[in-house]
């Protein structure tokens, strides 16, 4: 949990599984972290205007950006751990999204990468929709 490393930064954690959300609340309580835990699906909650968005094992990149974009601002930074297929996910996502990207080696998956995205915006379709 990033908030353990950065307890000075308030964070919002979104978890759709009620059991996992209860666990997160207990960790937050015991460690006295400045976190809010929302037990709901990301697509159902109010926009968060997040400075940083991170998600692990939620969806392929193109779908993940679709879920996360409504919670972002133009300045939002996305930090996204991705597995061995990260390059294919990036190629597919670039068909629907524009973004600046840096990659960093994963500490937990030799074939994976951490994607750092900025300036994320949906590509306008040719039909104008």
TrEMBL record:
A GO cellular-component term linked to this record: cytosol
InterPro entries hit by this protein: rRNA_ssu_MeTfrase_G, SAM-dependent_MTases_sf
Pfam families the UniProt entry points to: GidB
Keyword Cell membrane attributed: no
Keywords: Cytoplasm, Methyltransferase, rRNA processing, S-adenosyl-L-methionine, Transferase
GO molecular function ontology, one term from the record: rRNA (guanine-N7-)-methyltransferase activity
PANTHER family: S-ADENOSYL-L-METHIONINE-DEPENDENT METHYLTRANSFERASES SUPERFAMILY PROTEIN
Designated name of the protein: Ribosomal RNA small subunit methyltransferase G
Species in which this protein is naturally found: Oceaniovalibus guishaninsula JLT2003
Upper classification of the organism: Bacteria, Pseudomonadati, Pseudomonadota, Alphaproteobacteria, Rhodobacterales
């Amino acid at each position: 949990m990033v908030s353990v490393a950065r307890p000075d930064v308030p964070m919002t954690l979104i978890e759709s599984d009620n059991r996992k959300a209860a666990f997160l609340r207990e960790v937050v309580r015991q460690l006295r972290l400045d976190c809010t835990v929302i037990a709901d699906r990301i697509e159902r909650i109010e926009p968060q205007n997040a400075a940083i968005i991170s998600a692990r094992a939620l969806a392929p990149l193109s779908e993940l950006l679709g879920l996360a974009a409504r919670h972002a601002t133009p300045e939002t930074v996305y930090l996204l751990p991705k597995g061995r297929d990260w390059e294919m996910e990036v190629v597919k996502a670039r068909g629907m999204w524009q973004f600046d990207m840096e990659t960093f080696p994963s500490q937990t998956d030799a074939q994976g990468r951490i994607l750092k995205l900025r300036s994320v915006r949906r590509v306008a379709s040719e039909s104008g929709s």
